[in-house]
Specification:
InterPro entries: Ig-like_dom (IPR007110), Ig-like_dom_sf (IPR036179), Ig-like_fold (IPR013783), Ig-like_Receptors_ImmuneReg (IPR050412), Ig_sub (IPR003599). This protein has about 450 residues and is mainly beta. It contains no helices and 39 strands. It folds into 4 domains: about 100 residues, Immunoglobulins (Immunoglobulin-like); about 100 residues, Immunoglobulins (Immunoglobulin-like); about 90 residues, Immunoglobulins (Immunoglobulin-like); about 110 residues, Immunoglobulins (Immunoglobulin-like). About 0% of the residues lie in helices and about 45% in strands. The radius of gyration is 29 Å and the shape is elongated.
């Protein structure tokens, strides 16, 4: 009598004690899906159960159903069984396990395989989510990374699959986000260079959890670095804020022993570009962005190779496209001329909602970013930054940009420059920037 997979516990597997049988003690078979653990609706597929060479029969079970869904005799060389799916449908999207019988008895059940049904529809009702690595897809050996699966749609859960391990699909409930967005975070690691770490993710709704969206773009690849050399530096010329349609050159500078440089993006394409070391200045240029657009925004990092191995990854460089929306206004209250030790408010206003980014000329990046709120009195969306107590170091030219809330690296034209003057001398007080989102 074969062991029977029971129904104890919602979403769990167990042996049915009423059957009078104990679990099998022979090695468990393996279970895999063809062409993969996600099969497109209406396409053929199969589940393969592979046991020992002595297997005489294998049975396939679905979760929460004690009776076998199918049973088959092994094919030559007598250790593989094929359970065919003529046309994929939602009814096949379940969790499966298999057991095999030999002359010595029944095996233990296989590991669980979750089979998903991928629905392709028009108008983006199940459009693909995006998958990125935080802080970077380049990870030092033994390090950990967080994979972010994100969608503009309100998926209730996300599924992360790994190349070569479809049985190890991981599921996370989505986190609530503004504007009906949804996302889930998957911790991964420790990452090592001994194998390929490639992932895709899917979204699904609570009402139909076995129907998955299209997969995220071509598998995100994590690069686990082995022998670690000093990290290179990375920068953009003329700068990381690039006007739409303008060119930008990315530079990576490593050690004198560097032979080849690789540039990576947060999407994990492996690698984005490769360059040899160009001269004795031990650096390489990556001038492939001829006309900046929103598709080129994001984080970039680089590594270099020597005869000894890989370097550590550079710090990430974030590219932002500007000029995608009209310029906001920037004003100072009570005045752009302020006495040392006093406070001043810089207000960034726009006709549209979004995130305000305040920059000082000569600075490395935004001083601060703040979500704007609507001010009925001003008739604008405003974000107010309180500076102070100010000192001479805060004297300079300021500008602000409006950013898209959903696309954080897509910004407007810059505001007109605002010259902030700090009058008076004396000891420099401890200065700060207090962010206040204005609204009434």
């Amino acid at each position: 009598v074969p062991p029977i997979l029971g129904t104890e516990g919602l979403g769990t597997w167990s042996w049915d004690p009423a059957s009078g049988c104990l679990p099998g003690t022979l090695p468990r078979p393996s279970l895999r899906a063809e062409p993969g653990s996600v099969i497109t609706l209406g396409r053929p597929g199969a589940l393969w159960c592979q046991g020992t060479l002595e297997a005489q029969e294998c049975r396939l079970y679905r979760e929460r159903i004690p009776e076998p869904w199918d049973r088959q005799m092994p094919l030559e060389p007598r250790n593989k069984v094929k359970f065919s799916i003529p046309l994929m449908a939602e009814v096949y999207a379940r969790r499966y396990r298999c057991v095999c019988l030999s002359a010595a008895g029944w095996s233990e059940p296989s590991d669980t395989l979750e089979l998903g049904c991928q629905v392709r529809v028009t108008q983006g009702a199940y459009s693909k989510p995006s998958l990125s690595a935080l802080p970077s897809p380049v990870v030092t050996s033994g390090g950990n990374v967080t994979l972010q699966c994100r969608s503009q749609l309100g998926f209730h859960r996300f599924i992360l699959t790994e190349e070569g391990a479809p049985w190890a699909a991981r599921t996370q409930s989505s986190e609530p986000r503004p504007s009906a967005q949804s996302q889930a975070l998957f911790p991964v690691g420790p990452v090592t260079p001994s194998r390929r770490w490639a992932f895709q993710c899917y979204g699904s709704y609570r009402e139909n959890p076995s129907v998955w969206s299209e997969p995220s773009d071509a598998g995100l690849v994590l690069l686990g670095l082995g022998l670690l050399l000093a990290e290179p530096s990375i920068w953009a010329d003329p700068g990381p804020l690039v006007a739409v349609g303008s060119p930008v050159t990315l530079w990576c500078q490593g050690s004198l022993q560097a032979e080849v440089y690789h540039m990576y993006t947060e999407s994990g394409r492996h690698p984005w570009e490769t360059r040899p070391q160009q001269d004795s200045r031990h650096k390489a240029s990556f001038s492939v962005i001829k006309s900046m657009s929103s598709h080129d925004t994001g984080q970039y990092c680089c590594v270099y190779w020597t005869s000894l191995g890989h370097s550590q990854p550079s710090d990430p460089l974030t590219l932002v496209v500007t000029g995608m929306f009209p310029a906001p206004s920037l004003s100072a209250q009570p005045s752009p001329v302020v006495a040392s030790g006093e406070n001043v408010s810089l207000s960034c206003g726009s006709d549209e909602a979004g995130t305000a980014h305040l920059l000082k000329e000569g600075g490395a990046g935004p001083l601060h970013s703040l979500e704007a709120r609507y001010s009925h009195g001003a008739g604008l969306w405003q974000a107010t930054f309180l500076l102070g107590p100010v000192d001479s170091t805060q004297r300079g030219i300021y500008r602000c940009y409006r950013g898209d809330t959903n696309k954080t690296r897509v910004w407007s034209l810059p505001s007109d420059p605002l010259q902030l003057e700090v009058s008076g001398e004396g000891p420099s007080p401890v200065s700060s920037v207090l962010m206040v989102s204005a609204g009434d």
